[in-house]
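Re-run with default settings, no changes from the original entry. Doing this only to confirm the output is reproducible before filing.
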Amino acid sequence: MDSLSLPVLNQTIIGCRKCPRLVKWRERVAREKRFSFKDETYWGKPLTGFGDPRARVLLLGLAPAAHGGNRTGRVFTGDRSGDWLFAALYRAGFANQPTSIRPGDGLKLKDCYITACVRCAPPANKPTIRERDNCLQFLEQELPLLSRVQVVICLGGFAWDGALRTLRRLGHKPERKPPFGHGHEAEIGPYALLGCYHPSQQNTFTGRLTEAMLDAVLRRSRQMVSRE
């Protein structure tokens, strides 16, 4: 484990076939495709994190979208959730441009790294408990490699629980489990967790998450790291 680095870990993630249901689903979607993307070659494999390896802020999502990250090969890229997220990261100064539709389109993140609890697109966006636990081992290895991270923004309750489980595995155990909520904060060992509703269409179309709410969370993360 002493020789583990982000590139080595990422190759391990990409080659993972531990969850038969997820492997079958992600590859089926990549073969059958959505009609609007019928001429594109889908990624159809697990996704790694991406961004600034010296980031102090980590954004943690649930899993890749079937026709988003599973298509493009980068989490939150090529779907409506990503449209919201990258626009907000640009407004907050974490991204150099407000949009991203594919890797190699010029997007660069500064002081921010994005990853997910589950690395394969799950059917109905609902991984099983075993699938979640299989994948959290990657986050458990990834987080210490991002040695400057201070704040973990958890995009949704699934990510909040995933972060708590991962930190517990790393030896950081809160006295009691802090509840998830938008804007909720929790100090866990050397990390601060910051809750945010997931920028899914279900939340953004209904107004449960607004641009102002997402902007406020990102501003708060900047305030938290600037205290150091």
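The mean pLDDT is 96. The chain is about 40% helix and 10% strand.
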